[in-house]
Amino acid sequence: MRLPILAALAGALVLAAAPAQAADACDALAAKVIRITGASLAGREGPFAVFRAQDAERMSLDCRAPARITIASRDREPPRAYFTLVGLAARALTGADVPGAEVLALNLHQDSLLADAPQRGGTARALMLCETGPRTDALRDDLTVCRVAPRVGVSRIRRAG
Question: What's the pTM value of the predicted model, to 2 decimals?
């Protein structure tokens, strides 16, 4: 009789610890973003963190799997420092090469301007979507938005042929 009760108690403790572990992981990721990008924490609630960054109007982290960072500018053609910040954010989130991620963001932004549509691309470690406005969602005042997420599920097996 004691064994089932102990097993149930242990299961309850594991479930109770899961949100705390997720919060700790998000805190650690937010701290890494701050350390690498130089941004400051503006607020944190649940799996979301919002930052103040000199080179972006908005910068936010969503820690839900897969974690992703959104960097937004009010400029349709932001200065080069914005794209450097995107590269640094990609480094913080995924370990991506900063210059490679920066160039990717620049290219996706230019392609988005030309196509008048969001553009997707990736590096070895990061996936990115960049788009130019106008927008109709919560980021409607931002004319350039880039989202960075880790590349997941990439097989290292090469196909013959």
Answer: 0.79
